[in-house]
Amino acid sequence: MIHIFRKNQRVLMLLISALTIVAFIFLYNTRQLDDLSNVRNPVIYGKALTQVAIDRHVKNYQLTMSLGQYDLLRKLGGMAQEREAALSEFVWNLIVLQHQSRELGIEPTDDQVADRIKNLPLFKSENQFDPRKYSTFVSEQLTPRGFTERQLEEVMRDAIRLESLSEIVEAPAAMSEEELKATMRIFQPVTAEVIKFNKDAKSDSVPVAPEEIASIFENNKAALNTTETRAINYVAFELPEASKLEGKEKTEALQKLANAASVVTDTIAQGSVSLETAAKNAGLKITKLAAFDRSGSQPKNGDPKSTLIAQSLAPAAFLLAGPGKSSDVVQAGDAFYIFEITEVNPARPLTLDEAKPEIEARLRTQKSDQLFMQSTTAALNSIRSALQAGKPLNEAATSPGVTIENLTAVVPAAKDATSEQQLITANTLLLKDGEISNLAQAPWGAFAVRLTARGPADSKAFGDRESEIRTNMIRNKRDLLFAEWLRTSREAAKITMPGNTQG
What we know:
- This protein is about 50% helix and about 15% strand.
- The chain contains 18 helices and 14 strands.
- Strand 13 and strand 14 form a beta hairpin.
- The chain is globular.
């Protein structure tokens, strides 16, 4: 445990905490644990990973994100679009990183960790470390949620381990002048013909047999569950709707609201009374909020304000034990809330009838995509054959749903190029004049592009961005080296799970 900060620790007012600490949405979200928690006795480096260990790594993931250690998250796969996949990748890769660091003798010192913490923007005021912010962070954000300074320090150790190990692994990254010159192609204007394959909406109506649905259901029963929801009663402490307070006046007004909210929570804690009783005694209005899930979604509610409140309070609501339990003061924007759990609807296994609509929709989409790609591939092959036989493109591309569009002198790297133009021109970079690209997916379906001509590069534009390009290419090479090291290290770790093996 590092004690360097304890000399200056003191608890600040709730308002200061609310104004200076980042939103901890991931700190409260435990849904990402579902995928890992369904696995029993996973093994890595020949040792079983206990649920306690998994929980510890999940906390590290949540805290890593909250502390803004995005390089650590990015390199260890923790920023994948699918949240469950991001968590799973991060946990395994973090264990590999820690193991390999020990093997290489990379172990950050307490002084390095302390310096790293002091340099976090989260704990700075006027570009200097602010012990009050750190103290508030620990007392108001970590301790009430079962986190400790040790876990914060461990995240910093992991970040330093990553940096030290990356320097070793990525050292060979370099770029030749020939490679740099090759990138000039993205500054050459492209003229091309785009063969678009538009997906017919009718293809989404492909049949799905009841036996297919039943088979998917039987094979995935363990993962097919309802979502836990909770309902609450709450009281709100808000600025008047027409309020236009700014600066010091707004801060003072918010402070009064925070103090008023704290009086209510103190009354509940000291008198062991319900929120309803405390609110009634204080002359406050109790509002009911319909059941919502961990993200704050309310399927049966269309009120935007109610949805926003549910999304703000959901992370804290799912930390409470159950009905009758009251929260601490929670700030959302310029309002403060206190709530009490009134209803808990725990997750349960779905029945076949309940799971059927989602399974059917996914199967239909999957089949539709497969059929579309099959027909599109056949159509593109037919177009290639017709072109080789000497037909012009407009005669070769006559299949239903196929359209031809022209692209004229579009520079791939141009800042004013549309996202569609960037997508299309990116598929021309390896083509010679007259060649047709492979199929590529697009929002409208799919496309292939035939390069007609590539103009001379804009040397000035290239020169203006040469430094940026060089930096990006080196970074990409470093990332590839690290990714390859991580892949081989994971193979050596021999990660195994029941019914599954990961390399």
